[in-house]
């Protein structure tokens, strides 16, 4: 927990009877976090730089890359107590993880001088408290008022269904790999495609492709799984993924819906997904396999939360919508650094619009070359 020093315990000094705005950022590489302050209630008012309907909770959930603003109302009088601020990981996968607790201290200004005050610790959910995470996420709603309307797309131009999860790839000869067995290494994929980074930046490739008709990426990323299976049931025997630099092309100003479906191939796990270039609306989520006939009727198209990073439920699914009004090449990826390195990402290519301000500008003349 960082507030200016990496060598000392962070202390947040407050006065009684005040309201403080805390800006929280999960800067962890591979941990979704529970956060709480002992004997204090937090009021969530913002998520990813977008206002939400305020709601109270003793514990908040925040994934890597997410930001949240909360209001902290201090005690009306000096409590003669210091309060621990703790953060612990939320984790549901099969591998090892850092189960340490990070701590800071909420310290009231003492009007009586220095007194050794007792410390109180908050109670945090269990590490695998998926139901708590789902309940917290369901409370996040946009304001949807005249000043801050919810512009969630009501009609969909393009719809996609992407599975997300962990798989395996062959371990290269004469190497030692971290994987499910001695002959394989862990990999991660969307629709069973593990994204291979090109030697030249995707955006640069996209712009130059229009001039020389050459590219190192393809535009055939599957819009649905090529081999459907019981995504959250008994996993298939074959855990191997395919590799490729595959993208999806969508016309400018298209209303897009994406369902992200977790899989249990090598263990169901929550995946915090981040989309570059756009905010999106979280219109639905649930556990088990997404039901395309029944689940869309339950979507929230009135006041869904607007975010740029969201956790796909462990053993479940999540639906988002966004308007593709920003031309260029935009990654969508898991915000766990280890999963990102294993290939859990894909890229959208949003084509130019008709007007000058709807077109991708050329690279600057001083752009450094790789």
TrEMBL record:
Keyword Magnesium: no
Keywords: Copper, Glycoprotein, Metal-binding, Oxidoreductase, Repeat, Secreted
Plastocyanin-like domain boundaries: 8-110, 229-353
Cofactor(s) demanded: Cu cation
InterPro entries: Cu-oxidase_2nd, Cu-oxidase_C, Cu-oxidase_fam, Cu_oxidase_CS, Cu_oxidase_Cu_BS, Cupredoxin, CuRO_3_LCC
GO molecular function, one term: copper ion binding
Protein localization: Secreted
CDD domains documented for this protein: CuRO_3_LCC_plant (cd13897)
Stated name of the protein: Putative laccase
Taxon lineage: Eukaryota, Viridiplantae, Streptophyta, Embryophyta, Tracheophyta
